[in-house]
Amino acid sequence: MGALSDLRSEAGAELEELELDLLLEALVRRYGFDYRLHERDALKRKLYALMHRRGLATLSSLQDRALHDPASASALLRALSVPPATLFDDPQEALQLRGLLDACLRGAALPRVWLADCAGAEQAWTLAVLLEEEGLLARTEIHATVGSDELLAEAAACRIPVERLAQCQRLYEYAGGTASLTVHFQIEDGHAVLLPQLRSRISWAQYNLVTDASFNEFQLIVCRRALPDFGPLLRQRVLTLFHASLAPLGILGLDRPLASDDAHARHYQQLLPQQAWYKRIA
């Protein structure tokens, strides 16, 4: 019985991998979104969570829904995207950014920042507040890219309940903020939206890190939330893209420190101990 059970378990695992392969291929061929080089375990966690919410038993049933129902396809692609950020939800990262902004942006004629695979409007708004308080926003362009039209629509429609803005105040203070967050927002009907003069410095665009080429030169590139889901080959492809897009002496923010054998590691100097912030030196 033990051997038979092992065979059944092995067959089930093989079937699961086949179903996953077919689902990912379907997403490429039907919608043009390529997750085939993402970490398999991360994909499975996201997919099974979606299946549980939808009451689906197999990846094949999820694929069937996604191919024939636009709403299901949209929900699937959203589930595989970077989870949405909330305002100052990572105060340590925001504090580190606050300390690095001047070094990479102050001397540039037209400073540009790229939030690659941005985690939604509130991540971009957090950066805009930091830049405003450091006296850099008026000269700086923030380019926030996301993977789909749905994510662009979410960013454009973003509003924060006023009570949640108050809850973010403490996180903002942990990140070095000394004012009231409300000075950066306009309040209407119980919701807060970033002031127009701050929002105007953020440009949103759909962009695919898997397939698209470099589109500008940047003094700061931040991609700390999407990279953990990338498999080794895709990770190296994206790091090469960032290297081609980062200006000399620009700063790169990653999810984890570069390994010594990473293709471009010799071109970067680590700026903070045990933290994945790097200055391009060559």
Automatic annotation (TrEMBL):
It comes from the Bacteria. The keyword Methyltransferase applies. It holds the Pfam family CheR. InterPro entries: Bact_Chemotaxis_MeTrfase, CheR_C, CheR_MeTrfase, SAM-dependent_MTases_sf. The keyword Ubl conjugation does not apply. Keywords: Methyltransferase, Transferase. Its EC number is 2.1.1.80. Residues 8-254 form the CheR-type methyltransferase domain. GO terms for biological process: methylation. One of its GO terms (molecular function) is protein-glutamate O-methyltransferase activity. PANTHER family: CHEMOTAXIS PROTEIN, CHEMOTAXIS PROTEIN METHYLTRANSFERASE. This is Chemotaxis protein methyltransferase CheR. It comes from Pseudoduganella violacea.
